[in-house]
């Protein structure tokens, strides 16, 4: 491969630089002299921050970034992690409302499980910002901050096709594409996470034409999101399903060329299953192409070593900044600015949203995107640990 950034990601990179330069402008105020300028000053207000779990690296980072951003503006942050237990998250939010927080930023475990809490927040006149995972089945959601999740799926699918040699470095049909049909298997996220469907739909939007013309095939026949879903995004569940697929579909000598994986923990579970089955230690010696998402340090290290093919980078520093700006804007008595007012219907209302761009990470651009931006250090990439 050549040392270059992917052509299709140019717009996203520009958008990220622009958002960084304007300090998160778009989803709220810029934190200037009028920030927190309502009836109370920021130092007299508390924002409740509900995160789903501490077992997933990205949520720990998100929580820390949101907390830091709120405290920089003078707010008190009540940050709680629910350890992927729905009743715990419900109780945590109930307690925040009882303690009269001034705003809520919620990354849900199950977007449909917090209806009563959202009703209570509305009754208490507490603005609710849905963070990355859409809160559903309630009109009492004031704003949504997330990434372009359909584009995440599209990027994952294009990364898979690029790794398979079907597409070239400009994501155009490769002149030297393999002539034989290539076998892939498909994984999806947790069905209680609304984003999982956007990821899946984006990926299938790209992949279905290649399945129809037999450029690629799914020998297991498991081509619906229900068949491919991975409850709670668990690595062990993905590894077990991959092991079962290898036994049921590939034990007769059929070759597996690639796997669409929607998140890095799933990717690592899948890779463990593939390695244990003797399919190679690295891509160079035959390991199937495996995609990912979230640019977790362990997976970035695998990408640098030529084991995992790709991941999708969602700069959670920018996401946290947009959530903080939205909360600050609400608490200043104003409305945050959305850049999408059509896409996110939660079943009760279309929620005004602020969408951030994403970037594809490959072996030849991880340094430029992740190390040069100081998201990670080279030492962290080498060790696979923060």
UniProtKB/TrEMBL annotation:
UniProtKB keywords: Signal, Sugar transport, Transport
What are the subcellular locations of this protein? Cell envelope
Per its record, what are the GO molecular function terms? carbohydrate binding
Signal peptide positions (record)? 1-27
- Pfam families to which the protein is assigned, alphabetical: Peripla_BP_4
Instruction: Kindly give the PROSITE patterns that the UniProt entry links to this protein.
Output: PROKAR_LIPOPROTEIN
Q: What is this protein called?
A: Putative multiple sugar transport system substrate-binding protein
Report the residue ranges that make up the Periplasmic binding protein domain in this protein.
47-335
GO CC terms: outer membrane-bounded periplasmic space
InterPro entries the UniProt entry points to? Bact_Solute-Bind_Prot2, ChvE-like, Peripla_BP_I, SBP_2_dom
